Amino acid sequence: MADSNQMDSRQDIIPETESHEYPPGWPIPKLQNFVVTVNLDCRIDLNYLAQRARNVEYRPRRFNAVIMRIRDPRTTALIFATGRMVVTGAKSEALARLAAKKHTYALQKCGFTPKFRDFTVQNIIGSANVGFNIRLEGLANKYVTVGASFVPEIFPGLSFKQYLGYRADGTPRSCPTLLIFTTGKIVVTGAKTEEDFRAAFARVYPLFFDFRFASDPNSKTQV
Q: Where are the beta strands (DSSP E) in the chain?
């Protein structure tokens, strides 16, 4: 029951803006990095792979995976002995899938027999700039009960976690986090779909206008 009440309070405070088409004049957050995983369904001899493959790095004393890079699309794969592969650096899900297949093909050329299973988007990272400075303390104080956290002694940005609820089929949506900086730069992380990524930004962006710095010549905030 407590969780239900908490969700109701979030809905009362934060507007439920879900549209993928932002209103005119809104900043458009840019997708910067898709982190995806693939199950290769085979064991990988990392020492052998490091000797046979090109554009790889393997330092087992520092990290227990082979780091493989390709140029098109420009991505990096972490390949583990268990057959798990993590691919980062692509700017769309389609490019991430293409990159993962190219990394898998590179393993085949080295003599392994990898499969391409369980392709999953684990994290979408993007950024935006709202174009004005933000009073983080005021923002945190007002929304501390609905996911806002600001501890400047530890981190210079405000963390604002978004609880997006459930999809129509009953499955839970991801819970993206916005990292908000005084300069107006916003980093969105933790989304697993582009829909959730855009919804998280759309819900929080309208809140910033109440916390513009008074020194901003365009600010209408009363201090």
A: 30-39, 56-57, 66-71, 74-79, 84-90, 117-129, 148-149, 158-161, 177-180, 185-191
Is 80 exceeded by the pLDDT of residue 2?
Answer: no
Could you give all domains of the chain from N- to C-terminal order, each with its CATH number? 36-122 (3.30.310.10), 130-213 (3.30.310.10)
Which pTM does this prediction carry? Answer: 0.83
Q: How far apart are CA 103 and CA 38, in angstroms?
A: 10
Kind and range of the H or E element at 21? none
Half-sphere exposure of residue 152: CA atoms within 13 angstroms, side-chain side: 7
Mean pLDDT (whole number) for 47-51: 94
* Integer Cα distance of 105 and 135 in angstroms: 49
- The helix, strand and coil proportions of the chain, stated in percent and rounded to the nearest 5, come to 30, 30, 40
